[in-house]
Amino acid sequence: MNNFDVVVVGAGNAALCAAIAAKEKGAQVLVLERGPKEKRGGNSFFTDGAIRVAYHNLDNIRKLIPEITDEEAENIVMPQYGFTEFYEDLMRVTEGKSDPVLADQLISKSYETISWMADLGIKFQLNENQSFEQDGKLQFWGGLPLKTENKGVGLIQTLFDKAVEMGIDVWYDSRAIDLVTDNDQITGVIIEQKEKLITVNASSVILACGSFEANKKMRSENLGAEWEKAIVRGTEFNTGDGITMALAVGAQKYGEWSGCHSIGTDYNAPKAGDFNKPGDIYKKSSFPLGLLINNNGNRFVDEGADFRNYTYAKYGREVLKQPGNKAFQVFDSQVRPMLRKEYNLEEATYYKADSLEELAELMSVDKDQFIKTITEYNSAVQEGNFNPTVKDGKGTVGITPPKTNWALRLDQAPYYAYPVTCGITFAFGGLHVDKEGEVLNKEGEPIPGLFAAGEMVGGIFYQNYPGGSGLMSGAVFGKLAGTAAAQLAEEKIKVL
Ligand SMILES: Cc1cc2nc3c(=O)[nH]c(=O)nc-3n(C[C@H](O)[C@H](O)[C@H](O)COP(=O)(O)OP(=O)(O)OC[C@H]3O[C@@H](n4cnc5c(N)ncnc54)[C@H](O)[C@@H]3O)c2cc1C
């Protein structure tokens, strides 16, 4: 009874793309979700749905969003973001470390994969966070003009609707705990359902069950002791089970096991993602417009080093290193109206005061040092044209760390301080897969019948990551793994 061609472990974006692709090739597919139905969908459910794709022009984007009218199109400027731009961004933020084979596959398959997603019924819309108005036109920048309608919630709902419509079985409260092998071939998976253990037989198993970000022990062993304290931004269920199971059957570790994606998150956010409050509401991404100051009253990063897209993923870990794993994003009233929407949510924690002294008292930071830091910063700010839509070069001179762009004097009351800590998104270390998503063993040979996709694929992201690449990577490698796993199942049936 428990026989399937393909078993997919996990029910996030990568898993569901894999399951649908396998089903399209005619396989009998089972999806296993560790959580109950109301907590399905993994980190993908929590996303803003921003998704990075290589495209040539606005026509490519309009194919994905047919609702854009000719009149609207005339007022949109959509610079090309092709293979080269995406590849260069990925290599730049990973300092050249991204595996070229996997990077090539991710980027070259990105447009065809997103078109396939659109055909499945996933709705996309313009990501206006990545645009600004210039000469009456909406000017996009940064290669991230797309997001899914209704964020990750919409994405997951549509993928589940499609999976169910296609007749894919989904088992909830079903935690995969072990792989079954026969002569080094994968033949199934063992599942824990409440108190019961069940074996499901399958020709192929696709692991798409996230990384180890929600596992305190694996975090502190691999990322460093301080990571025990990090907030988990997404699902509580990504505790590294898939990676552990794969390593137990000889899979090769790959990628930056000491690195992860993390960001500045509201200090009072829940310790793990709350499925009743999805939509990435606790992030705090407007730090390039202000200053980041720790409990000792000191700055510790160049807030204006680059656009938020290229620094937000590494500044989270810098916050974790600060005393009390805490820092404050400090703004004055001239930039407060420019802050992103999340600063206006009722969930946002902040202090407001008419003087910097009063603000420091509310923040309980070292007041003298706080005032000194801001005074020195204000004196170091150079004249120039402030323009948040480009790297304006309006910086500081003579202070460490500098603020390279968007440096305005912080001198207009009232003042605001948003306490932040570090929220981990996912770990960069994972398994080694080939370009079809097959998991490789320590000798670099495929483990027959074992595939992986999504967060648990190592070797693509190191140190940092271009925003929106997580969903695209899950979709590309999920689809590839699903297709290859179904093919393998068919070949096995022919042999029998
Ligand atoms: C708050 C937040 C915002 C984000 N915003 C974006 C964004 O806008 N754009 C972007 O590209 N990326 C974003 N990311 C990153 C993105 O979520 C991930 O890169 C991507 O969704 C990972 O997809 P996945 O399918 O690999 O994993 P997930 O979506 O996490 O799915 C993993 C699945 O495995 C299940 N599971 C775990 N263990 C087991 C087990 N043992 N047995 C069975 N099931 C198991 C989980 O319950 C879950 O269903 C964001 C992440 C967070 C947390």
Low-confidence stretches: none
Query: Can you summarize the main beta sheet?
Result: 8 strands, mixed
Kindly report how far apart the N and C termini lie. Answer: 18 Å
Number of helices: 14
Which descriptor suits the 3D outline? globular
Give the percentage of residues in beta strands.
Answer: 15-25%
* Number of discrete domains: 2
Question: What does this entry look like structurally?
Answer:
By secondary structure, the chain is α/β, with parallel strands linked by helices. It folds into two domains: 278 residues, FAD/NAD(P)-binding domain, CATH 3.50.50; 162 residues, Succinate dehydrogenase/fumarate reductase flavoprotein, catalytic domain (Flavocytochrome C3, Chain A, domain 1), CATH 3.90.700.10. The protein contains 14 helices and 21 strands. Helix 1 runs parallel beside helix 8, helix 5 runs antiparallel to helix 6 and helix 7 packs across helix 14. It is globular and about 75 Å long. The mean pLDDT is 96. The protein binds flavin-adenine dinucleotide (FAD). Flavin-adenine dinucleotide binds next to helix 1, helix 2, strand 9, strand 18 and helix 14.
Brief description of this entry?
By secondary structure, the protein is an alpha/beta fold.
